[in-house]
Design a protein that fits this description.
Helix content: 55-70%
Distance between the termini: 108 Å
Structural class: mainly alpha
Low-confidence stretches: 34-44, 431-458, 621-641
Number of helices: 37
Strand content: under 5%
Mean pLDDT: 77
Strand order of the largest sheet: 1-2
């Protein structure tokens, strides 16, 4: 009888003698009755007690019009509700207004009231809609809405609730009204609203916060273990309170308050159940993974597999940070064999951010391969990382092991293995004599396989195409197909594009591309491939007359293993050209001869990409004194005399070379052999007194 006690217990009115005393006795007697939830004891209440309360009301009405209001009537105890209903049925002819305010759908109490108001013609049911305008509440004063647009935004966040709207205004009054962050007052308001909920409604509120954007009525029912449709009804209540719209919290701060009602253990268990619920519904792997991360490892292999699948999807979407989180969680599962394969995938994700950091995985994973714990697909992946870090012997070991089992592999895996062999041939010709064929191009099948590898393959494939004399249009097509995802992938592709610009004589573009590549990942993280961007920068700076820039680049430390690779040959040619340009004849010739000897030992002819012959031919044989105390070139002949001596055939070849065509493309265009093109260019360089095609543009325009 708590509501009746509040209405009548004060007795400050002008009542007849003994009425206050009798009413107080009535209230106390009713409060002491032991009744169950169905108020079975109401029948034991003396009928004259209820009539006594009605008599008090009638006496008050004689004094003037009477208004009785009860707020939050949905929280009223059953005896008080029955007393109120007794009055409602008898005061219709009187000068009395009884206002009962409560939430619809709040259990048995409101159901009884709703039934009475519907059938009683003296009653009016008024359903309040959310506020449609904040101006009447916050139009003036310190909490005023700064603009109509801001007022509409506040209303949306508050769900039209006056309580939440006032809380938002209070929080933003001190930090600037344009702030989008909800403060402590708002959180307290949400806490108050959650405290008004029934236990079942509160469980639904928590489940909504756990599921977030993935919430649906069916998922909420399964997560809360409710009967079908109960969660939808609870969400209607939450929507009327201004907290929820279409099964989503209007504010992340409100969702956070609901989560705070759960202990860490309860929250983790809820996330694990949510993972199973959304997984059974076929949700995206990353959605399931977020719940597994929040809840901890879920029993069975399905959780680990979901985390790995989510990581691969995130890598494909260019989000290696997320992929690393998923894979580290997958490492927590106990199976040793699967953990080893997860670590290969983790290596791939970490390489996308920082290739140097991935080095720590190589030795343990190589041992896992030797023990037979890696899948063939992950062993192929490991080959590329061993190549990158200058370990060709271990890479060859894995390729040999896998080559003996090729017949067991499906077509997709065979394509990846062939791609790995192709990269090895093009990058490490010294260690691949058994496989390398100088006239072999990177096949379309190899490039197609590269497009299906989510991490290293596109970058290495582009580099291999560049190093193995692929036509410019083919490399450009590949560069356009490869997605620009991580720092590492973008850096490698920028370096390949810069080398392509260098071949075309576009030195400024090449230099910008190299600077971009080296800003994405530092030189010490490039492994053996650092020779490609460094060579492009040294040659570009040399061609642009920036001797200091070329010298600074040439002084950067490089791994010794690089000089066993084709990137190392590029680097030697570039550094030798720079030394010659600066008058260091002995140093320049030493690098060019070293480049020549490497290519000869590998039985590789890349004179169009590494024109060491032309650079050597341009060195004047006449003795002189250099900065190193040795010979220096003789004075160059005048431009007028040298250009006049160039034949028409030589000029056609030189013009095409100046515009970026390779020797092979020039040969096809002019119907010549590659050897004839090389001879023409060598004579042109000698006549013009230049060291190679980098200087053609300036020399021919003189």
């Amino acid at each position: 009888m708590g509501v009746v006690r509040q209405l009548f217990g004060t007795a400050h009115w002008n009542l007849k003698p003994r009425q206050p005393e009798r009413l107080t006795k009535f209230v106390d007697a009713a409060a002491r009755l032991q009744v169950d939830a169905e108020w079975a004891g109401w029948a034991e209440m003396p009928r004259d007690a209820a009539e006594e309360a009605h008599g008090v009301i009638q006496e008050l009405i004689e004094l003037g019009p009477l208004v009785l209001t009860v707020d939050d009537v949905h929280n009223a105890d059953h005896p008080s509700l029955q007393c109120l209903l007794y009055l409602v049925r008898r005061v219709a002819p009187s000068r009395m207004l009884l206002v009962l305010a409560g939430r619809m759908g709040s259990g048995h109490t409101m159901s009884q009231l709703f039934a009475e108001f519907v059938r009683n013609p003296a009653c009016t049911l008024i359903r309040l809609a959310p506020l449609s305008d904040s101006a009447p509440l916050l139009g003036d004063g310190p909490g005023a809405v700064p603009s109509r647009t801001m007022g509409e935004a506040w209303l949306r966040e508050a769900g039209g609730s006056p309580l939440l709207l006032h809380a938002l205004a209070s929080d933003r009054r001190g930090v600037g009204q344009k702030s989008q962050r909800a403060g402590e007052t708002f959180r307290l308001a949400v806490q108050y609203l959650l405290d008004q909920l029934s236990e079942a409604e509160l469980e639904t509120a928590k489940a909504l916060a756990i599921l977030g954007c993935e919430a649906t009525p069916s998922r909420l029912d399964r997560l809360t273990r409710s009967t079908s449709g109960a969660s939808a009804s609870h969400c209607t209540t939450l929507e009327e309170l201004g907290l929820v719209k279409e099964f989503r919290y209007r504010s992340s701060a409100a969702a956070a308050v609901a989560l705070d009602r759960m202990s860490p253990t309860e929250r983790a268990a809820a996330h694990r159940r949510a993972a199973r619920v959304v997984h059974d519904d076929g949700a995206h792997a990353s959605v399931v993974a977020r719940h597994l991360i929040a809840g901890g490892p879920e029993g069975g292999a399905w959780g680990r597999d979901v985390l790995r699948r989510a990581a691969q999807q995130e890598l494909g979407n260019g989000a290696p940070h997320e992929a690393i989180s998923w894979l580290r969680a997958a490492e927590a599962y106990p199976e040793a064999v699967e953990r080893a394969n997860v670590q290969v995938e983790l290596l791939s994700a970490e390489w996308e951010l920082n290739p140097a950091a991935a080095h720590r995985h190589l030795d343990p994973l190589l041992n896992e391969h030797r023990r037979g714990n890696l899948t063939p697909h992950n062993s192929v992946r490991l080959v590329a990382y061993l190549m990158w870090h200058g370990r060709p012997a271990e890479a060859a070991e894995i390729l040999t092991d896998l080559g003996q089992r090729t017949d067991e592999f499906p077509m997709g895996l065979r394509m990846r293995l062939e791609s790995g062999l192709a990269w090895f041939r093009h990058v490490y010709p010294l260690d691949s004599d058994a496989w390398y064929r100088p006239d072999e191009d990177v096949s379309e099948r190899h490039r197609a396989a590269a497009l299906h590898d989510p991490t290293l393959a596109p970058s290495v494939s582009a580099m291999a195409m560049l190093l193995h004399r692929q036509p410019h249009h083919a490399l450009e097509r590949q560069l356009l197909q490869f997605p620009r995802r991580s720092h590492t992938a973008r850096a490698v592709l920028a370096a390949a594009s810069a080398a392509l610009d260098l071949q075309r004589g576009q030195y400024t573009l090449a230099l910008a591309g190299v600077d971009q590549a080296l800003s994405l990942i530092p030189p010490d993280a490039w492994g053996i491939t650092v020779g490609v961007p460094l060579a492009a920068k040294i040659l570009s700076c040399t061609a642009l007359g920036d001797g200091d820039g070329a010298a600074a680049c040439a002084q950067l430390p490089v791994p010794d293993a690089m000089f066993e690779t084709l990137p190392g040959a590029h680097y030697l040619y570039a550094r030798g050209t720079h030394h010659l340009q600066e008058g260091r004849r002995h140093a320049g010739l030493g690098d060019l001869y070293a480049c020549r000897d490497l290519l000869a030992h590998w039985r590789v002819d890349l004179s169009d990409l590494i024109p060491w012959r032309s650079a050597l031919a341009a060195v004047d044989r006449k003795p002189g004194r250099s900065r190193e105390g040795g010979d220096v070139p003789a004075p160059k002949p005048s431009a007028r005399s040298t250009t006049a001596s160039i034949t028409e055939a030589e000029r056609r070849v030189a013009t095409l070379a100046m515009h970026g065509s390779t020797n092979r493309e020039i040969a096809v265009h002019l119907h010549l052999t590659v050897s004839t093109v090389e001879q023409h260019l060598t004579r042109v360089y000698r006549k013009l007194g230049i060291s190679g095609r980098l200087d053609l543009s300036a020399a021919l325009r003189m």
